[in-house]
Amino acid sequence: MTARHILITGTSRGLGLALAEHYLSLGDKVYGCSRGQSDLRHENYCHFEVDIGCDESVASFFFALRKHTKVLDALVNNAGVASMNAFALTPAKTFKKIFDINVQGTYMCCQKALGMLKKSEHARIVNFTTVAVPLQLEGESIYAASKSAVETLTKVVAKEFASFGVTCNAIGPSPIDTALIKAVPQHKIAALIDRQAIKKMAQPADVLNVIDFYLKPESDFISGQILYLGGIS
Amino acid sequence: MQNIDILQTIYDAIAVANHARDDDKQISLSTETSLFGSDGVLDSMELVGLLISIEESLMDEGCEIALSDERAMSQSRSPFRSIGSLKSYIEELLQELSS
Questions:
Q1: Tens of pLDDT along B16-75?
Q2: Are residues A195 and A230 in contact, defined by beta-carbon separation less than 8 angstroms?
Q3: Chain A closest-CA separation from residue B29 CA (Å)
Q4: Which of A19, A74, A190, B2 has the smallest number of CB atoms closer than 10 Å to its CB?
Q5: pLDDT tens per residue across all 233 residues of chain A
Q6: Chain A: nearest CA to B54, how far in angstroms?
Q7: Cβ of A114 and B64 within 8 Å?
């Protein structure tokens, strides 16, 4: 298989870093971004400093990216923020930050990547949602609402981009041991896992498996789908 | 970014689009050609494809502009209703960019 050109957002740590390392190990060319610099050093890795919640920063990023590649085979919208708080106590500033990064960031990247994606034989977009959406978790109202928006965006983009040969799907991981949930108390995580059909903490490899599936050339006919881990539906 | 022939950039993108169109669906290279709307030759996704091609050509020339506009799908006010209006719209954007 020839090297794919894969853009992954939020590659400085956690799942994004694991994704970048995974696709680099497969021989793909990976473009990553985060607010700061990356410690990842690899001949096939190219890092950009981007504020994914700022539309101007994302637009400039894609302008710069085009100087490195004219084609993208996959866009993985991994960058995201979570916030746990009672709905009644969540400041508007937090709401805006979560929606700017999770929703606007995903929207901007999908829109700006289309020109490069449509040149690929098997173009893919993979968005990130969460099991907090189907479980309607208390304390995660704004985070879950932002990811509900991402799910709807995924389904509509799947329809609008189909004529360009671009599929668009989403993965909803169950709790994984990454920075995103480090502030969540252990007993809350345990209670959440207890609501899964398969009661265990997910591993980054579980997410990689789903994204590998979405990215396979044989998955040309898979689009507009939301796949949750852990047997949650 | 200086001295870009906007009309030629549009015509080049249309020429590429014409390759994929049937003989009786070819888009005429004229500023009068209606692109989008009731008598337009493009559906909404074909319009998106054309605009992306133009946007990419302009970016290759160093112009960081976006051809997204809230009036895009308006039948009467869309800047994309004809080749002529599209040319004027791009010129406006480039003017804003350089000012």
A1: 999 999 999 999 999 999 999 989 999 999 999 999 999 999 999 989 889 988 888 877
A2: no
A3: 23
A4: B2
A5: 799 999 999 999 999 999 999 999 999 999 999 999 999 999 999 999 999 999 999 999 999 999 999 999 999 999 999 988 999 999 999 999 999 999 999 999 999 999 999 999 999 999 999 999 999 999 999 999 999 999 999 999 999 999 999 999 999 999 997 766 777 788 888 999 999 999 999 999 999 999 999 999 999 999 999 999 999 99
A6: 10
A7: no
Answer yes or no: do A160 and B49 touch at CB < 8 A: no
CATH numeric code, A5-228: 3.40.50.720
3 state SS for chain B:
CCCCCHHHHHHHHHHHHHHCCCHHHCCCCCCCCECCCCCCCCCHHHHHHHHHHHHHHHHHCCCCCCCCCCCCCCCCCCCCCEHHHHHHHHHHHHHHHHC
Judge: domain B6-98, CATH 3.40.50.2000: no
Structure letter (DSSP) for residue A27: T
DSSP state letter for A22 = H
Cα A152 from Cα A132, distance rounded (Å) = 15
* Closest by Cα among A150, A134, A141 to A84: A141
CB-based contact (8 Å) between B59 and chain A?
yes
Ramachandran category for residue A37: left, alpha or beta (phi over 0 → left; psi -120 to 50 → alpha): beta
User: Could you tell me the residue ranges of all domains in chain A?
Assistant: 5-228
